[in-house]
């Protein structure tokens, strides 16, 4: 089974390359690296936990669309929040994206690598190649 990188190179707003793949296809699974709330300018979006959650999930959705999949194919999600007080607002936004059959999920509180980041979301997707 070949492992295929998806999504191109990861580069920070200042041009620093990051040694990871946005996503990897391994057989029938697509595994996404943790998505931070990077806007089009490469910086963490303003607007608090709600805006950052939407940006993370929109980035996940865009990566999935690039392989022909969608949020309905997400089997498992891991979420890191930098502040446990954000859980309720995070959960409300998350529910908008996964309303019918939500994936299995773990949510933990942890310091994140970028000081302005409030949330990081990674996903495992079941999507056999057509």
UniProtKB/TrEMBL annotation:
GO terms for molecular function: hydrolase activity. Its EC number is 3.5.-.-. It is an enzyme of class 3 (hydrolase). Pfam families: Ribonuc_L-PSP. Keywords: Hydrolase. Gene3D superfamilies: RutC-like. Belongs to the RutC family. This is RidA family protein.
